[in-house]
Design brief:
Number of helices: 5
Strand content: 25-35%
Strand order of the largest sheet: 8-1-2-10-9
Shape: globular
Number of domains: 1
Low-confidence stretches: 1-12, 37-49
Structural class: alpha+beta
CATH class: Mainly Beta
CATH superfamily: CheA-289, Domain 4
Order of helices and strands: HHHEEEEEHEEEEEH
Radius of gyration: 18 Å
Largest sheet: 5 strands, mixed
Number of strands: 10
CATH topology: OB fold (Dihydrolipoamide Acetyltransferase, E2P)
């Protein structure tokens, strides 16, 4: 018996992932509309009250949060191609749905040491979008999901940071817009 049928007790099939490009675009548009709640696109009072949800990931020696309103998907590293002459924190490029995207090694950018490949496991890539510009962030592991409130983030100690703030003294929330700007200035 299918595990979905067991869990729901009604014999239903698992939902299918979007198959066509049109279905994928519709799903992405709906995700962006839902993400507006935490993106600050609403009146500031509600954005502060609601906060935002994020994907908690392990990168290098730290735990980081990638806000969902920038996150497109998490995929396996299917082979990076290093690009000569780029800064060291650009891990390379990777094919994603017929397009090349730049992959950033945040461990190098933030901590100065490359993202380690876990023995027997492939690294993952969080694909993010900032104003129709897609790029990837190299991850070691996905820890979970949580939320933060804007007013409770503490300041990062780094002055040149791409970190919005620190959640609960443990998780650095990544400012994807700042990462995109840094990438655009570099290339």
């Amino acid at each position: 018996m299918d595990s979905a049928a067991d869990a729901h007790g009604n014999g239903s099939q698992r939902p299918q992932m979007p198959q066509t490009q049109r279905q994928q675009q519709l799903l992405q548009r709906r995700a962006r509309q839902l993400a507006q709640v935490g993106s600050g696109a609403l009146d500031g009072r509600y954005a502060i009250e609601l906060g935002a949800r994020f994907l908690e990931v392990k990168i290098g020696n730290g735990r980081y949060g990638i806000p969902y309103h920038w996150l497109c998907e998490v995929i396996h590293d299917n082979g990076l191609t290093r690009v000569p002459g780029t800064v060291e924190w650009i891990a390379g490029t990777m094919a994603r749905r017929g397009e090349l995207i730049t992959i950033i090694d945040l461990a190098l950018l933030l901590e100065g040491s490359a993202t380690a490949a876990v023995a027997g496991a492939r690294r993952m890539v969080a694909v993010v979008v900032e104003e129709d510009f897609s790029f990837g962030l190299l991850l070691e592991d996905v820890v979970g999901s949580s939320s933060y409130f804007y007013q409770t983030l503490t300041a990062s100690l780094r002055h040149d940071t791409v970190v919005m703030g620190i959640h609960n003294g443990e998780v650095a929330i990544i400012d994807i817009a700042a990462v995109a700007e840094k990438l655009n200035q570099t290339v």
